């Protein structure tokens, strides 16, 4: 194994709250110990950010003894430096320099491990090989939480050629991938985003774009425009209770409303009502599914397969930030105006380019 420096740069959480120079600091931390079991040690080149990072900054206590030095960040791309004895010697992961990407899971986050650090130890089960032909920056953006969540949504739907789908939040990290894959599978995609992002979303494969800022209330416009051409599925990555409540006007009876936005941001009441309230008591007569991702290597591999098979051609990246600029990157994320993914360049290396 390459000899590692004794210390590394890593962002650490100083206190709970919105990202700022007082809640987060770029610090010097000990480099992780060599990997044990089925873990692998990575040199992280890129990390991608997700809305859940902001949520974790707010809620995860920093006073717990095992989280005193907590690093934020879930998504990573990097190269293998060493593997534990549990990784088979004939696995591609056992070859130093192999490029991988994925997302950390609950167990790592609970212990304060994060991807905004130069070196990272992760279970081999959480990573997938970076597909040839994409950059490490794109791999971080695609194969982490956003891409893995898109696999959940498309698996739930089983989109087939000729189906009609609506994607709300089409210009975001998850939505921009759902649009591409649904279109590549032969669906007719109608996208909801702001007018400023129309060109980008059409470029991803949307046949029609609804600018929700110009068509208020957007659910009434959808009801008028798509009553005679209803959708098979509605993918909601922006969390619109109004679009769900009005969906019988534009979602087929046998269709499904598939959401990933619930919990604290929406409140428990809409979720319970959408799932359980009978129609005769005012419930919406369309199936509502709320999906939750537990990051895993199989989902990351599915994203890589989409890339390899040409279903996912673009990795929309809003901006790539330097490691020093993580607070600004998180502030942009918090603005909810990112077009695609926000990526942090943790440490460049010679083999970064595709
Ligand atoms: N359940 C899960 O497992 C899971 C997994 C991943 C993400 N999520 C959640 O899913 C949501 C989306 O995640 P993400 O990573 O895609 O977020 P993101 O990239 O930060 O989303 C930003 C996008 O949201 C769009 N947007 C903001 N307000 C909108 C509105 N009212 N209508 C339509 N679009 C709107 C913006 O587009 P415009 O500027 O064009 O409006 C922007 O492009 C977040 O709430 C996240 O927490 C859940």
UniProtKB/TrEMBL annotation:
Under SMART domains, the record lists: PKS_ER (SM00829)
Could you tell me the superkingdom of the organism this chain comes from?
Eukaryota
Q: What is this protein called?
A: Enoyl reductase (ER) domain-containing protein
Q: Which InterPro entries match?
A: ADH-like_N (IPR013154), ER (IPR020843), GroES-like_sf (IPR011032), NAD(P)-bd_dom_sf (IPR036291), YIM1/Zinc_Alcohol_DH_Fams (IPR050700)
**What are the protein's GO molecular function terms?**
oxidoreductase activity
Enoyl reductase (ER) domain boundaries: 20-344
Q: Pull one GO CC term from this UniProt entry.
A: mitochondrion
Q: Where is the signal peptide?
A: none
Task: List the CDD domains hit by this protein, alphabetically.
Answer: MDR1 (cd08267)
Pfam families to which the protein is assigned, alphabetical: ADH_N (PF08240), ADH_zinc_N_2 (PF13602)
**Organism, scientific name:** Lasiosphaeria hispida
């Amino acid at each position: 194994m390459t000899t590692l420096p004794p210390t590394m740069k890593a962002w650490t959480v100083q206190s709970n709250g919105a990202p700022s120079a007082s809640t987060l600091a770029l610090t010097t931390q000990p480099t992780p110990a060599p990997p044990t079991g089925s873990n692998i040690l990575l040199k992280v080149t890129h990390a991608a950010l997700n809305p859940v990072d902001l949520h974790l900054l707010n809620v995860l206590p920093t006073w717990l003894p095992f989280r005193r030095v907590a690093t934020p960040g879930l998504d990573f791309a990097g190269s293998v430096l060493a593997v534990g004895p549990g990784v088979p010697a004939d696995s591609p992961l056992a070859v130093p320099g192999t490029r991988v990407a994925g997302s950390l899971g609950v167990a790592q986050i609970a212990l304060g491990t994060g991807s905004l650090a130069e070196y990272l130890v992760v279970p081999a089960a959480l990573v997938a090989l970076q597909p040839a032909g994409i950059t490490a920056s794109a791999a971080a953006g695609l194969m982490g939480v956003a891409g893995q969540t898109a696999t959940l949504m498309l698996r739930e739907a089983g989109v087939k050629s000729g189906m009609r789908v609506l994607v709300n939040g089409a210009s975001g990290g998850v939505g921009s991938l759902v649009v591409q894959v649904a279109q590549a599978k032969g669906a007719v995609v109608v996208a909801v985003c702001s007018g400023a992002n129309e060109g980008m979303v059409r470029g991803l494969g949307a046949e029609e774009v609804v600018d929700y800022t110009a068509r208020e209330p957007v659910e009434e416009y959808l009801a008028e425009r798509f009553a005679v051409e209803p959708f098979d599925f509605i993918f909601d990555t922006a969390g619109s209770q109004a679009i769900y409540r009005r969906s019988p006007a534009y979602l087929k009876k046998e269709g499904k409303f598939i959401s990933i936005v619930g919990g604290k941001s929406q409140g428990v009441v809409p979720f319970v009502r959408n799932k359980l309230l009978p129609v005769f008591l005012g419930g919406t007569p369309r199936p509502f599914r709320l999906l939750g991702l537990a990051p895993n290597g199989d989902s990351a591999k599915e994203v890589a397969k989409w890339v390899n098979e040409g279903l996912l051609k673009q990795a929309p990246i809003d901006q790539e930030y330097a490691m020093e600029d993580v607070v600004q990157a998180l502030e942009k994320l918090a603005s909810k105006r990112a077009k695609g993914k926000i990526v942090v360049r943790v440490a460049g290396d010679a083999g970064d380019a595709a």
